Amino acid sequence: MTYEREEIALKVREFIESLNNECKAGAIVIVEGRKDGIALREIGFKGEILVYNNFKGIINFVDHVSRKGRKVILLLDRDRKGRSLTSKILKKLEILCPHDSLYYKKKFVKITHGKIMCIENLSNFCLPFVEN
Fold first, then answer.
1. I need a labelling partner for 130 at 20 to 30 A (CA). Which of 8, 27, 56, 58 fits?
2. Mind giving me the DSSP string for 67-92?
3. Taking a C-beta distance cutoff of 8 angstroms, is the pair 67, 82 a contact?
């Protein structure tokens, strides 16, 4: 593993710890598909994950999330479909539960230097998370 890759893997582990802390405080992490959720678990994420694809459309998804009344962290993919979904969900969510839902997505892009487009690729890129 190269130095840059090791550095990114370390920062991703810190990112996951931060996400875990957010979830301990009640936040929900939203991913696009089942493989994205699996990848987060493989590198140590322990919080609540909602998989967007398990819902039948944006309206059902947003209704479900807004009823929970909790902070929402969007970690949808950075491909065309993921960006489109993110935009549509944000428009609906901002009305019902305003939060900075993209803070962690922006942080993730910065940490990985934009090299990881899909959350499901995280486990291939990073060493598994090991708690001390």
1. 27
2. HHT--EEE---SSHHHHHHHHHHHHH
3. no
Tell me: the pLDDT tens digits for 79-118?
999 989 988 888 887 755 555 667 788 888 888 888 778 8
Cα 101 from chain centre: 10
What is the value of pTM for the model shown?
Answer: 0.80
Check the CA dihedral 124-35-39-11 and report its sign. positive
**Rounded to whole angstroms, how far apart are CA atoms 90 and 79?**
16
**Rounded Cα distance, 33 and 71, in Å:** 20
Paired residues of 49 in beta bridges: 29
Tokens 């019902």 sit at which residue?
96
Helix (H, G, I), strand (E, B) or coil at 51: strand
User: What CATH topology corresponds to 3-116?
Assistant: Dna Topoisomerase Vi A Subunit; Chain: A, domain 2 (3.40.1360)
Per-residue pLDDT tens for 38-47?
999 998 999 9
